[in-house]
Amino acid sequence: MSMWQGAWHILIYELRKTRWSFLGSLFLALYMAIVMGVLYRFNATDVLAGEYWAIDFVFLTTLPCLGFVLSRSNMSWRNDTNRGKLAEWRTMPITVPQLIWGRMLQIAVMLFPLQIIFFLIQYFLVDGLREAISPGAYLLYGLFWFLYSLGIAATYAIWEYGFTGKTYLVVCVLYCIMFLLISALLSFNGISIVNYVLTGLEDGEWWYLLVGLLISMIGIAISYRSLKHRLETRSF
Question: What's the pTM value of the predicted model, to 2 decimals?
Fold first, then answer.
């Protein structure tokens, strides 16, 4: 069985196993889209006044989380919930690259439909958004955030599969602190990532997509190399 065939089988197995947990992730996407759609108003003056740090923070932290299912076992941080599964898989004719790419595929398959739902709701609920950006530019805007989310979510997988639940929780908290500092510092200087990308793509600055693609490629590359080393040397 080739590497991609093995990764595909792992993807199908995981999707079947977590099909009901997908509803939790769907609820999160709907909740985020509706709440932020009501609270978020597209206004350049508010951006300059530093009003958008919270929107940036939520986008940076939460959108990548849509690549993970919300289940009781996944949220049990006291236990290493993936250890038993990985140990069992390592006794089978499944290679480490197949495990890693199976996880990457699952993240991408989760992210894609949930972010489509999220950004569609945003487009119709956010005050002033439809007037500020064309449908084509908004499609590119959603693609930028999908690429960003894929790259960041891939790095989360390092800690999800490679370490204990407690370590994973601590790292997630550190991620939140890092994104909070980034959002606050940019806001202090009158910069909003969300609005800069939005208006930039509307003005034809497509290089933002290259930034998103770069984040995605770097995140996946780091995740693959780190997980490969970790899973090959980790004692189960």
Answer: 0.89
